[in-house]
Amino acid sequence: MINIINKSDCTGCTACKSVCPKKCIEMKQDEEGFLYPEIDKEKCIQCGLCEKVCPVKNAKEKEKEQKGYVLNHKNDEVRKNSTSGGAFTPIAEYVLEKNGVVFGATFDENFKVIHTFVENKNDLQCFRGSKYVQSDLGNCFEKVKEFLERGRYVCFSGTPCQIEGLKSFLRQEYEKLVTVDLMCHAVPSPLVWKKYFDYIKKYKLKNEAVKKVLFRDKRQYGFKYSMMTLESQNRKYSRGVETDPYLRAFFGDLSDRPSCYDCAFKKQCHESDFTIWDCFIAENFDKKLDDDKGTSRVLVNSQKGQTIFEEIKEQFHYKEVAVEDLVRNVKEMSYSVELPAKREEFFSDMNSMEEKDFFEKYFKDTVKVKCERSVRIFLAKTGVYKNMKRLAKKILKK
């Protein structure tokens, strides 16, 4: 049976739970808010399937022929509601047009991030936009298999570890399964998200019901300086990456799952059909694709993926680029995040401190932070921000 001694060896993908013939594995939340398998040893028959499908224990590493693209969707409305260039939508629509189903991460009624599926184009809206929280997969792997066994097309989107977990669970290739993974920095704790959500609702939105959450809101200042936004009926909270406490925790790597600090899936050749992520340097590939409304990089990792791309490519403004150019300097592809010295203290305080005290301890809105926020907003408003970022990157390279 699977035995998680070191938490860095488990991504929480649910493959072990999903494959268990006796249903004796449950995913239980730990004190940091992450889910891990817990086995009822009295029911376990020692079949070993849980170990055989674990993507960490059986991580795949093989080279593939890939193609690379920089693109954005021709429909501005789709792109406006997407984190970057809207690359996922035509792939999902391709599957739905074949009477298929699409799985992805969305919010439930309490703004918890969960995985679920939709069966029509109008519902794809719920999957658009980043969710910087580890999603609860529930029984999605079992539902995917059920749909495939019934002969339906399935598109499944998620992190690389979720994709490999799904494929390990299925234990065979399905021609009608289309997989899309998102370039992953790391996955933050659902408990940190809940504490932050409660904090913003209470102190910034005056306890009004939250109507909308955008982790990457590009409506105000464009794609290159997006904001964390929470809105109620009468109020709005919106801060950038340098001042919002949740984004500071995420990009400071304080709130990540233990497996993210030694990720087994940091590699160029993913098991998915498509790998998609932001392209903040679109002008390096084609200046026509750089309008600050959102642009995506796409790696096509399979012949199936390439066949689909050929059918949907007219929905994009796109340019094919050499794979080595597309992935150059993409740190998230090859390197795990570094373990911060204060991570243990951070989670200990999360469980013992009131929300306001907790976030102000680690992410105090100091004069320095306020000045930085004002400068960035000024640069964004004047259209100088993207040029300053470009100049800074050139200086750092030297």
Overview of the molecule:
The protein is α+β, with helices and mostly antiparallel strands and 398 residues long. The protein has helices at 15-19, 49-52, 76-80, 88-96, 140-149, 160-170, 190-203, 245-251, 303-312, 323-327, 331-334, 343-352, 355-362, 367-381, 385-397; strands at 25-29, 35-39, 67-73, 101-107, 113-118, 154-158, 177-182, 212-217, 227-231, 236-240, 274-278, 296-300, 316-321. The protein folds into 3 domains: 7-52, Alpha-Beta Plaits; 67-187 and 256-334, no CATH class; 190-255 and 336-397, no CATH class. It has an 8-stranded mixed beta sheet with strand order 5-4-6-7-11-12-3-13, sandwiched between helices. Strands 8-9-10 form a 3-stranded antiparallel beta sheet, with no helix packed on it. A two-stranded antiparallel ribbon has the order 1-2. Strand 4 and strand 5 form a beta hairpin. The longest helix has 15 residues, at 367-381.
Tell me the Rg in angstroms.
21 Å
Question: Strands of the biggest beta sheet: in what spatial order?
Answer: 5-4-6-7-11-12-3-13
How many helical elements? Answer: 15
Order of helices and strands: HEEHEHHEEHEHEHEEEHEEHEHHHHHH
Q: How far apart are the termini?
A: 51 Å
What low-confidence regions span 5 or more consecutive residues with pLDDT below 50?
A: 391-398
Mean pLDDT across the residues is 92
Strand content: 15-25%
Structural class: alpha+beta
Q: Which geometry do the CA atoms define?
A: globular
- Strand segment tally: 13
Domain module tally: 3
Main pleated-sheet profile: 8 strands, mixed
Helix content: 25-40%
